[in-house]
Amino acid sequence: MDLRFTPEEIAFREEVRTFFRTAIPAEIRTKVSEGRKLAREDYVTSQRILNDKGWAVPHWPVEHGGQPWSAVQRYIFMEELMQAAVPLPLQFNCFMVGPVIATFGSEEQKRRFLPRIKSLEDWWCQGFSEPGAGSDLASLKTRAVREGDHYIIDGQKTWTTLGQYADWMFCLARTDPNAKKQAGISFILIDMKSPGVTVRPIITIDGRHEVNEVFLDAVKVPVENLVGEENKGWDYAKFLLANERTGIARIGMSKERIARIKRLARTTPAGAGTMWDDIDFRSRLASVEIELKALEITQMRVVAAQATRDPTKPDPASSILKIKGSELQQATTELLLELAGPQALPALRDGAGDNDAEALFAWADAAAPVYFNHRKVSIYGGSNEIQHNVIAKAILGL
Amino acid sequence: MDFDLTDEQSLLKDTVRRWAADTYPGIEQLASARAEPLGFPKARWVELAELGLLGLPFAEEDGGFGGGPVETLVVMEALGRALAPEPYLASVILGGSAVRLAGSPAQRAALLPGLMDGTAGLAFAHSEVQARYDLNDVATAARAVDGGFRLDGRKSVVQNADAAATLVVSARTAGDRRDAAGITLFLVPVDAAGVSLIAYPTQDGGRAADVILSDVFIPADAMLGPEGEGLAIVERVTEGAIASVCAETVGLMEALHELTVEYLKTRKQFGVAIGSFQALQHQAVDMFVALEQARSMALYAAMMVEAEDAAERAVALSAAKVQINRAARFVGQTAVQLHGGIGMTMEYIGAHHFRRLAMIELMFGDTAYHQRRVTLAGGLVGIG
Q1: A314 in any annotated domain
Q2: How far apart are the C-alpha atoms of B144 and B140, rounded to whole Å?
C-alpha cells in the first residue's frame, strides 16, 4: 500500500495544471468559478482548446481520440481541470453519447459522429427523463414506431439540460410496447432540427434557463440512427450511467469553491475585521474540508479498484461518491451564501461597486443562484435516495 | 498510488483476524478475559508475542520486524473487530513508540526485548487531570538531585498501567505548567519506591490507573530523550496513537455494521424481516457510508503519521480524528437504534462495540478539540 503519487504522476499533475491555467481563457474560468452563466461559445471555445491538445476525451478508446492514460492519470486530469475552474467537457457529448457510440455504435456512426462529438461541432442533449419517468426511468412512454426505413417518434422529454443549444439528442424510446418495462426500449439519435421537435424552456429555482422540456411530435428518424440493437437500449443506458458516475463526486469543484471562500473571507468585512476572523464560520468550513478529504481518499480507492473491474458495470461503491460528493458540493454553496450574508439579497443592482465597501461584494449576487442551483446535485444522476437503494441492495444484500 | 496490501501484509491481516476470531468468538470469552486481574489473560498476550505482533513496529536491529504504519493499521483493525482487551495500544503503540522514537541504544536494549516477548510491558503516563487534551500541560515536577531526579505528581487515566513493568512518565524539568519547553520523559519502573497506582476498570472493558509519584528517585540514565524537549516526542507518540485508534475504530465499526445488517436480515416483525423496510435500509446504508469514509481517513492517518512536516502531520491527524469520532458516534448510535431493545443489553456483543466507540471519541482529543486545531491551522484546502 502506498498512497502517494509517483514522481511521474506528480509531473503529469504539473503539466495539466499549467495547461489549464494558461491555455483556457481566464474570463471563462472566472465565470465558472463565480457561478456565472456560460454562453454556448464559452463551452465551445474551452472544449476546442482541449480537443486541439488531444485532451477533450482522454477516457475514450485511443483509436477514437482517447489517451493511453492510467486510471490515476485520468483522475488527476479531472481534478486539476475542476480546480482550475475549466468548464467540464460537455458531459452529454464526452461522457454519455460518445462512449455509447464508441462501444455499441456502427462503424458508420463512429465515423460520422465521434469526431464532431469531441470537437463540440455537434452539441448533444440527453433525452431520458420524462414527466412520468424520473427515478423510475424504465417507465418511460415515448414511442418509436417503425415505418419502412424510419422511426416515427412521439413523446415528451424533460429536464433536458442545455437542450436549447443542442444539435442532436440521444433518446430512449419504447420500440416494443408489449415487452416488460426494461425490455423494448431502444437508444435512438435524433436531429434536433427535425420537424416535430419543440424545445420549451424551464426556468429553475436559480432564475436561470438551464433545462428544457422537449416535445417530440411525429418526429421522423432514419433507422440508421438506431444505436446497437433494437430493444437493447436499456443496456446501453446502464452503461452510460456507469460512465456518468465516474467523477460524480466533483471533489475538484468543491475544493475550488472552498479555496475561493477562503480568499473571499479574508476581504469580506465583518465586525471589526473580516469573516476570516470569525472562528465559527471557519470551523464550519473546516468540517466540510475534513469530510472532503475523506471523500478524496474514497474516490482514489474507487479509482484504484477500477483497474481490475469490469468497466461496463457500475461500481456500487461509486454511490458513496454520489451521495457524499453532492452533499459536500451543497455544503460549500451554503457556506458561500453565508459568506455573502445580506449582500446575497440583491439580484440585479445598478451602480453596485460605487464605493469601496460595495466593491468588495461584487461577487455576492451570484451566491444565491449558485446555492439554489446546487440543490439539483442530490437529485440528478440517480437521486441520493436511489443511491441508498443501490447500496442497500447491491452491497448490503437487503 | 496503491491500496492493495502486500502479500506479507495480507498474511499478517489473516493471522491477526484468525487469532482474534478464535480467541474472542463471543461475549463469554470476552467476559472471562476481562475478569482476569489485569483485564486480559497473560497467556493470550504471550501468544501475540509468539506471533511476532509485539515486535512488529520495532527496528530489526532492535529485534523487531520493522513494520510501518500500514502494518500497525492492519493489526489494530483486526484487534478492534474482536474487541480484544490486550494492551496493544498502551504497551506497544504508546509506551513502545516513546522508547522507539527517543530511546538510546542502551535503553532500547534494556526495554524492548521484555516488551516484545510479553514479559515486561510498558505504559505511557503523560496525561494529567487538569490538562484535558493539551499535551503541553504538565504539572508533574522533576527536581534535579545528585545522580538523577526526584519526581512528584499525579498522572491520570494511564491505560493498562497495572500491566506494565515500566512507565514512560513526563515531568517538568523547567518552565511553567503549560509551557511547551521544559518537559522531559523518564523511564520509571512501576515498582520504584514512591510509585503507587490506583487501578480501575474503564467503561469500554479495559483497564487504566491513576499513577501517583511521591518523591520518586530516577537515575540520570533513565531520562528518555533530551532534557526539556519531551513535548515533541509526546506529540509524535500521540499522533501514532491517533492513527492506531482510527484503525481500531474502523475494525469496531465494520464488525458492528456486519452485526446490524445480519440482524436486519433475521429479525422479523409484522411477518417480515425488518431489513425489508426502507427506513431501516437507508440508515444501514448511512452507517456503511460513514464506515467507508472513516476507512479512507484511517488510511490517510497511516499515510501522514510519518510525514516530515510537523505542522502538516498535526493537522492531518487531527482531521482524521474528527472524521473517525463523528463516524464512531453515528455508527454506534445507529447500530443500537436498529437493534432495538437487544442493542441496549450487556449480553449483546454489539453493545460492547458501542461502548468502546464512545470511549475512543474521548481519547487523544475529542471532536471539538481536533476540529478547533484544524480550524486554527487554516483547514486542509490551499487557497489556490
Answers
A1: yes
A2: 13
Same domain, A192 and A268: no
DSSP lists the bridge partners of residue A130 as A133
Task: Give the span between the Cα atoms of B315 and A363, in whole angstroms.
Answer: 31
pLDDT at A352: 56
The pLDDT value recorded for residue A246 is: 60
Q: Is A210 domain-assigned?
A: yes
Q: What is the pLDDT of residue B341?
A: 96
Q: Supply the pLDDT for residue A116.
A: 98
- In which domain, by residue range, is B293 found? 231-376
Tens digits of per-residue pLDDT, B98-122? 999 999 999 999 999 999 999 999 9
Task: With respect to residue B381, please indicate whether it lies within any of the assigned structural domains.
Answer: no
Which of A207, A233, A259 delimits the end of a domain? A233
Looking at the structure of chain B, the number of domains it has is 3
Residue B301 is assigned to a structural domain of this protein: yes
pLDDT at residue B194 in the model: 98
At residue A355, the pLDDT reads 75
Instruction: Give residue A228's domain range.
Output: 124-233
| CB-CB contact of A283 with B371 (8 Å) | yes
* pTM exceeds cut of 0.80: yes
Q: Do B384 and A9 touch (CB under 8 A)?
A: no
Distance CA A289, CA B379 (A): 7
Band of pLDDT at residue A296, cut at 50, 70 and 90: very high
Residue B132 belongs to some domain of the structure = yes
Q: How far is B367 from chain A (nearest CA, A)?
A: 10
Give the pLDDT band of residue A351 (cuts 50, 70, 90). Answer: low
The pLDDT of residue A353 is: 59
Residue A3 identity (one-letter amino acid): L
A311 belongs to a structural domain: yes
Query: Distance of CA B189 to CAs A348, B168, B186, B192, B208, Å?
Result: 74, 9, 10, 5, 17
Domain boundary among B88, B121, B154: B121
DSSP state for residue B92 in the 8-state scheme: I
Single residue among B228, B262, B297 that ends a domain in this structure: B228
Number of folded domains that form chain A: 3
Average pLDDT over residues B44-48: 98
CA-to-CA distance for A135 and A132, rounded, in angstroms? 9
* CATH code for the domain in which residue B74 is found: 1.10.540.10
pLDDT bucket at B186, cuts 50 / 70 / 90: very high
Site of grid cell 473546516: A286
pLDDT at A294 over 60: yes
Q: Does A309 touch chain B (CB under 8 A)?
A: no
Q: How many CB atoms lie within 10 A of CB B101?
A: 15
pLDDT given at position B302: 96
Degrees, nearest 5: CA angle B96-B97-B101: 125
The catalytic residues of A are 244
| Chain B CB within 8 Å of residue A293 CB | yes
Q: Are residues A221 and A251 in the same domain?
A: no
For residue B157, what pLDDT band results from cuts at 50, 70 and 90? very high
d(CA A202, CA A145): 28
Report the C-alpha gap between B343 and B258 in whole angstroms: 14
Measured N-to-C along each axis, helices A279-306 and A251-265 cross at an angle, to the nearest 10 degrees, of 160
Chain B residue with CA closest to A276: the answer is: B378
On the CB side of A81, how many CA atoms lie within 13 Å of its CA?
A: 20
Q: What is the per-residue pLDDT for A350?
A: 63
pLDDT given for residue A359 in this prediction: 83
Residue A388 belongs to domain with CATH number: 1.20.140.10
Q: Pick from B281, B286, B379: which is nearest to A398 by CB? A: B281
Question: Which chain B residues are Cβ-neighbours of A396 within 8 angstroms?
Answer: 261, 281, 284-285, 288
pLDDT number for residue A317: 81
Does residue B209 lie in a domain region?
yes
Do A156 and A80 fall within a single domain? no
- Read off the CATH number of the domain in which B350 is found: 1.20.140.10
